[in-house]
Every structure is written in structure tokens, then in C-alpha cells.
User: What shape does this take?
Amino acid sequence: MKKYELIPVVVENDNLVLHRIKALKDFGCVKAGELGGWIESEENLSQDGTS
Assistant: This one.
């Protein structure tokens, strides 16, 4: 099971498109449903571990 998903909130800045992430399950100090930071793509954040 994935630990986060990209939600349809996008920011475009200096030709860079960033997507907001949302936790799908509890891991580390993160709780399911919490919104996280911004990433360019899923390749920039592992679905494994506590990152």
C-alpha cells in the first residue's frame, strides 16, 4: 500500500510544477490524512520507510 498520494493542488513557480502530498497511512510521526510538503513528482519521495 502507498503511504502518500499527490493531491490535485498544484503550484507553478519558475517553470517548476509542484504537487502537494497527503499521507494515506500512519508512519513515523505522520498521521493518515495529514497534508505534507510539495514535490515535483513521485520519483522525488520514496513510498518506503519514513521519508
